[in-house]
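stage 2 :: seqdesign
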């Protein structure tokens, strides 16, 4: 399994004139890939595929159209793609 750290990806990235609170970051993962998210409050919106989100020891499976609010107070979350379809999701 390949795991990337989003904190490193976002380091120095300008997310638009509206700032990080308004502009969405869209990501695509395929089966076997995982993304470690920074410890901050954000909303994950699954656009297609199936997401497996783990945060603070709790696992959540999300299908296309589902939303999930991450807690800034909890541990860092990890998002993984499961199934044969690529996972496309946005974070705000």
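stage 2 :: out
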């Amino acid at each position: 399994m390949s795991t990337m750290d989003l904190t490193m990806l976002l380091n120095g990235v300008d997310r638009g004139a509206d700032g990080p609170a308004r502009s969405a970051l869209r990501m695509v993962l395929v089966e076997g890939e995982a993304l470690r998210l920074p410890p901050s409050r954000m909303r994950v919106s699954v656009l297609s595929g199936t997401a497996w989100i783990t945060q603070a020891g709790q696992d959540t499976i999300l299908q296309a159209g589902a939303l999930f609010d991450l807690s800034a107070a909890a541990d860092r979350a990890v998002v993984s793609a499961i199934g044969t379809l690529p996972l496309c999701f946005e974070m705000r």
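stage 3 :: structure notes
- Residues 2-13+23-91 form a domain with the Jelly Rolls fold (CATH 2.60.120.10).
- The mean pLDDT is 82.
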